[in-house]
Structure formats: C-alpha cells, structure tokens
Give the backbone structure.
Amino acid sequence: MISRFERVSNYVIVIALTVGVLFPVAWFVLTSLSPNTSGALDFSNIAWSNFSAAWHDGNLAHSMYASLVITVSAVVGQTVLAIMSGYAFGVLGVVGERFLFPVILLGMMVSTEVIVIPLYYEFQRIGLTNSWLGLVIIQLGMGVPFGTYWMRATFRSLPRSVMDSAAVDGAGVWSTLWRILVPMARPAVLTLVLLSFMWTWNDFFLSLIFLGDPDKQTATVALGAFQGRHVLQVNLMAAGSLIVSLPVVALYLFFQREFISGVMAGAVKE
Amino acid sequence: MSVLAIGRTRARTRTVSRQARKRRWIGLLFLSPALLLYGVIVLVPLLQTVNYSFYKWDGVSEPTWVGLRNYLEFGRDPRMYAAFGHVLVLILMFGLIPLGLGLISAALLSRAKIRGEGIYRWFLFLPQVLTSVVVAIIWKRIYAPDGPLNSILRGIGLGHLTRNWLGDFTWALPSLGMIGVWGGFGFTMVLFLAGILAIPDELYEAARLDGSTRWQEFWLITLPSLRGQMAIALTLTITGALRTFDMVYITTQGGPGTATTTPALLLYQLAFVNPDVGRASATGVVLAVLCLGIAVGITRIMESKDR
C-alpha cells in the first residue's frame, strides 16, 4: 500500500526534525568540552576540567544540594498527599464532593503568577522567605490539584472487587489503601513521582522569588546567576548547564515511556 | 414477600447507607491535609491578589485604596501594551506553528511504520524535559554574535544576514519565538501520533473505498479525530506563551528597550524589583482571566464541533 517513495520521505522528515531538535543541544555539549572560553569548538584537547571548574566556580555543590533537598521533600509530600486525596475521591467518597472536587480542579487552571504576590508578602511576614521549608510548602500546595486528579483516576480504574474482598478480610480503610491499592497502582504512582520531580527540579520562577539569599538558592537559579557572571566563559557555562540538567535527563533516560505518557496525560496541568 | 422480609431489607439498606456516609466522612479526613495546604497556598492567595489589585502599595508602607485605577491605567501604560502585544507574536510561534508542524509531520509519519520510532520520539521529546533555564542558556549561545547560527550563515555565504539576534529590535522577539517552536513541536507531534493511532482503521478503509484522496482523508478523518489533542496542545502552548518568563529573564531581560517584555516579566518587576504591588496584582488578575478565558474558549469551540 505504501510506496517506496513515501517510506523514504518519511525517514527524511523524521531525521530532519530530529536533527533540528538535537543540533542546538549537541552543539552545546561540544561547547562544554571545548577548552576555548569564547565558545568556539576546539577538539584538539577535550577539556573535561570544564565540569569541575563550573562545579566550583558556580558553587554548584551547594545549590544542587538545595535543589535535591527541596525536590525530594516536595516529591515525597506531594505523592503521599495525592495518594490520600485520590483515595478519598476515588474510593471512599467525600462529604461535599460535588463542591470540593471542582474547587480542587480549579487549581490546575490557576497559574503561579497569580498567587505568587500575596504568597511572597505573607511568607515574608511570617519569616518563611529564604527558607527551604517555605518553598517546599508552596510546592506541596500547588501539587495538590494535579496529584488528586491523577490518583483519583487511577484508583477508580482499579477493580472494585479487590477493595470489597479486602473489607471482607477485615482490612481497614488505612491498610486497604497502603497494603493493597498502592502496590496495585505502582505504575501510576511512579509516573506521578517522575513528573513532580521534573516540575520541582526545573522550577525557576518560585525559587528566584522565594530564595533571594545566594546561600539558599536552588541549582536553576544559581545557574542563571552563574551564566550572568560568566558571559565570557561560554564553555564553563555550558558545562554548568549540563550538570544542572543531569538529574532529570538521567531519569528521563530510564523512564522515557512513563515520562512521555505522563506528560501527555498531565497536559492539563501547567 | 412478607412484611418481615421487607422490614429486613430496609434495615439493611439503612445500615449500608449509614456505612457509606461514615466512609464519606473518613474520606474527608483523608482529604483534609491536601485540602488545607491547597487552601492556604492557592485559594486564599488567589482572593488576596484580587484584593491587592485595588490598592496602591509599595510593599512596605501603608497601602491606599485606589479602586479600579490599577486596571484603568492599563490602557495608558505603553509597557503593558507592548507586553501584551508581544504575547500575540509568541502565541503564534509557541502555539500555532508547532501545532501545524506537529499535525503535518504526524499525519505523514502515521502512514508507515518507522523503524526505531521510539528513539526519534525520545529525541523529539527531550526539550520538554530540559530545564527552561538550560534551554534559555543554550539558545542564548546559539544566537550570540559569535555563535553557531551566525557561523553557519557566514559559512554558507549568507554573511550579510548575520546579526546579534537577541540584541536586535526587530529580530529579538521572533528569535525568542523560535525557541518555542523548537521546544513545542516534538510534544505536539508525539501527542498527535498517539491520537492518530487511536483512530480505527475501518474509517480509513471506508474512505478509501469511497475513493477519497489522501488530502480528503486528512481533512475528513484525521483532523476531526484529533480535536481533543489539539485542544490540549493549544491550551497548553497559548497559556505557556502568555506566561513566558524564564526564557526572557535569562536571555534578554525584556530588552533591547522593551522589545521582548512579557506580562509575566512585568509582573515580576512590579511585584519584587520596583514594587508597585497593586499594579502587579492587577497584571496577575488580567493574565489569569485571559488564561482561563482561552482554556474555556478552546474547549467550547472544540466541543461545539462535536455536534
């Protein structure tokens, strides 16, 4: 049915598109290995030392640690909250559900820009700006709508009979959730973990506003500041960028299927 | 059925519904931590922003009530005009171009199985995963006066086209827009490919029996079947364009002049750099209303075609 011409042209298109997407990234990776500070490529001697130089000059050890603490806390918290609220809406039912569920979904439409101003001034008043805890709390609250939506759909798709037989066996609501349903929903939970990891690690706006103190900054903000200072050392800037994107890219490498399907399903967010 | 039996069933349904009601209260208990955080972090600030937008406040001294003045001044502020005007260009480049490219490539590719499809998908999706800051830094380098883009232009004999792309009043904004095209179309393509896979083959076979051309197949079957995906893609990319911040903050800071300011950048400056908190809040409210309106509008249009 499909002609040879079409088959060939398909490959041409797909390869052209891929090259178009990869070219900027590939060039940047090569830049990070070049000893030339102006960013011109030079392969005569590959400068792995750029990575250690960027690591030290950009104070990345410190800011990567900040990102890690914030991201891991936010991801763990968001996942637990999502599992509990998804279980409430999807299995138990909730008093006032008809009102509460739409109110929570509304949060998927609310963008950060709208709430960030009062949050900043209130947090400043109670001393939660320049604090990792403050940022984690914000990430937790903002993760509720998507997490609830996601886990509710997941729990609803599980067979009812499993929950009934668990109840007959005398399992309470708490142990049914953690011992039976969560293990069954593992793929969906994994996707949620990956997505919230990506969204929290990649965040720039919130950390820029809430962590003004350079000692508290996350890796993305530190990288932004670093590139501002090192306009003339393009190779270091590239190396630093690669270091900061590494955790998410590594996860993407291992879980690409979950990532892609998750981002598509979660497209409603953002 | 004896009266006794009826009484027994009634009693049972009553206990069942009492149990269900009890479960619903337990449900509320399970929901409460999430609900509490959501209320404090999202709902309350949402209302506060609206409230702030009626005041003149520098963030430190006593706020004064100014009613709707922050909103009325919108029309007289050239920066606001510029910012919302730039968004139109960005919507085109973040939203419509990736949508078109994604549609065309997905429609072409879906007709034949491509070997190693997973690998292409992996690469095309990569920009979605990369940190926006890193994407901005990469492109700042690509566009630099001595960067790869200008080197290539010089290399192929188009040296007269070289320029400082992000420092040029005319070209800075379209150059930013290109970043959106680059990042967006892999996503739309993967989304549309998945959508096309879900279209039943019988539809195409029937069309072929009726003697329709490939072009007609595309217009009559593929395109209408992808309405849902298009609605998602457009809502995402358009609200994304409206909210562009990281990219501009890292690459141009809104410059040269105000050639690339966006509403989100203005909001940031007004709220935290030279605080005029009321104005910033009003900007936030306008942005939110626009985003909500676009999302609702797109859903409406896509759904109304269904009937």
Remarks:
- The first helix of chain A runs from residue 4 to 32.
- The mean pLDDT of chain A is 90.
- Chain A touches chain B through 92 residues (CB under 8 Å).
- The radius of gyration of chain A is 23 Å.
